[in-house]
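Dear support,

We are seeing what looks like truncated structure output for some complexes. This example has two components. We would appreciate it if you could run it in full and send us the complete token output so we can diff it against ours.
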Amino acid sequence: MTRASTARDLTDIEVIGFDADDTLWVSEDTFHSAEQRFFELLEPHTPDGIDLRAALTATERANLPISGYGVKAFTLSMVQAAVTVSDGRVPADVIGELVGIGHSMLTGPVQLLPHVPEVLAAVGPSYRLVLITKGDLVHQTRKITTSGLEHHFEHVEVVLEKDPETYGRILRHIDVAPERFCMVGNSVRSDILPVIELGAHGVHVPYHLTWEHELVEQHEEEFVELDSLAGLPQLFGGG
Amino acid sequence: MTRASTARDLTDIEVIGFDADDTLWVSEDTFHSAEQRFFELLEPHTPDGIDLRAALTATERANLPISGYGVKAFTLSMVQAAVTVSDGRVPADVIGELVGIGHSMLTGPVQLLPHVPEVLAAVGPSYRLVLITKGDLVHQTRKITTSGLEHHFEHVEVVLEKDPETYGRILRHIDVAPERFCMVGNSVRSDILPVIELGAHGVHVPYHLTWEHELVEQHEEEFVELDSLAGLPQLFGGG
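Here is the complete output from our reference environment:
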């Protein structure tokens, strides 16, 4: 089911970069479940007329420049929002449970997405593979090392923000020209548009959930879109 | 007031690595103040016979492999310990204040230690300088960019753990042989012993506060110790 929305020339690619969260393994679902539990836990302690989802999202958004992406920042936002929406009446055991949700997210097993090990094994022999992921250094490192996939990658970068400057620095570091680099990921905003701006290539593999922050309204750039990572070896001529 | 405890040969040094927290700027003091405030806030809600310091330290230590170093991990540990030591009775406004302490730490201005800009300006022309710091990616990056010191460094690394493996990877990346690298920092455990293990050099500049986790009982390795960073240019022949 490979649907290539455009047929940009990928024959000169030397390095394939992979996003991690929601490209190689499940991530957004765990945030989604945590939010649902937050709503359940806080609902009895919240006055009528408070939009719990809006309050949590606004807290997360306000904290993003301070705390960045990742589970620890998200957990602190849940705790902060709990105090605020309950007007200071949330019981301590609810706070304890919110911290526990964060710890479970930080220590939970990595759930690989379908086809991931086979796809990496298929393209690995013909391309240099790198992993470029945004988020918390400790948590991302734990996920990478426990995923069983680390040996496929010659280089792993945990970055603060996926912007053209960051990608440019990484491409210089791994010594590859932009036109010979292709990034594969689920976020048009983070994985595709910034690399296209550099003159590199992008392959978008949408995930069923996308964090609101990662959504882009519209774009004019052309890039390949695949229904599933399973189409990748064929796209790169290794399938 | 340069006191060189040994006179290891530093004449072949090409790259000087600097630690950041409590070497270039104040860090441990802010954790110390936060802890004091934690004790004040929790004391009225804690049964007699509970050792607040021991409880907080134990919580931090237990969370270290999960959450790593840094303010977000520390703040989550404060919140978790607050729920535990109060036996689930801590009021939400105290929780809100603990989260606020974390935010203040994350957004507070960088306080440079004495002599830092002059010392970097003195050694910068003759050596390649790199910054190697442990901790949270967002917070360390914010401190580096707002410190006004970033331009002195050809490379900045925020790492998960300062062990020989990590230092080895960085030295390969910046293409310098261990015997031509010298690390400067306040922690014998993190800045000195692992680089000496690699065959590189270390200059220890003690800070008046050392986090318990960074203490080492004893060591046999020989390295240079300076009372103040001000002695560095002279040590490297640039003073």
